Prior knowledge:
The chain is built from four helices and five strands; from the N terminus they run βββαβαβαα. The strands form two sheets. A three-stranded antiparallel sheet has the order 3-4-5. It has helices at residues 31-35, 54-63, 84-103, 116-134, and strands at 4-8, 11-14, 18-23, 39-45, 73-78. The chain has a domain at 4-103: Double Stranded RNA Binding Domain, CATH 3.30.160.20. It is of the alpha+beta class. The radius of gyration is 27 Å and the shape is elongated.
Amino acid sequence: MTDALDVGQGVSIPARELAFAYARSGGPGGQNVNKVSTRVELLFDVEASGALSADQKRAVRSALRTRIDETGVLHVRSDSSRSQWMNRQDALRKFARILAAALRPVKHRVASSPTRASRARRLTAKKRASLLKRTRGRIRPDD
């Protein structure tokens, strides 16, 4: 791993701020599953990070609250491969992707009003539905 991980948005996370934990992975793999710790968990302390500004930390906490534990540590797991090295690379890719998505500015919706044509279509549909419902009444012999 290089000395820093570029996640986009002008943010680069130093390698010293990333920690890794390893565990035995489930699933197929034969005897390898019982012997080798191939599951990788990337740990990133959002609050202690010097690479993120206060606003960026707030954005990450808000966007990734389901992945951050009560101590403020972001967890990213990977166990898709039988290789610990490949799982580590996958965890780094996942981390960069989700952090970049969390730091992406939120587009604010610009309120718009319905067009004249859409209002006309809506009223036509309402009149059609009203007419259809009026014809569903009980049929009387005197009509």
